[in-house]
Amino acid sequence: MYSAAALRKSPGTANPSRGGRNMTRGLGGSSPANVQKYLHDVSYPTDKQTLIKQAERNGAPKEELDVVKQLKDEHYGGPQDVMKNYGEIE
Hints:
Region (Disordered): 1-34
Helix content: 40-55%
InterPro entries: DUF2795 (IPR021527)
Pfam families: DUF2795
Largest sheet: 2 strands, antiparallel
Number of strands: 2
Number of domains: 1
Shape: globular
Oligomer: single chain
Protein name: DUF2795 domain-containing protein
Structural class: mainly alpha
Number of helices: 5
Organism: Dyella jiangningensis
Radius of gyration: 12 Å
């Protein structure tokens, strides 16, 4: 099981040449840090629906919630899996 702190420490990366999107690192927009902020208290392993519910409970704004909803419908073993999938969203 991974803690919320582990999730916040997993910045993730994207490779645009492999279909990943560039991840903004600023305060605005949807960045890994902005998405992670609303996934605290998630117990891993988990699935996409649980991530969505937790983001909603944590008050995620529409932009970040939409990103979580775009994740693949699969099981996530830890926060690194979420961030890897985040990097693959087109």
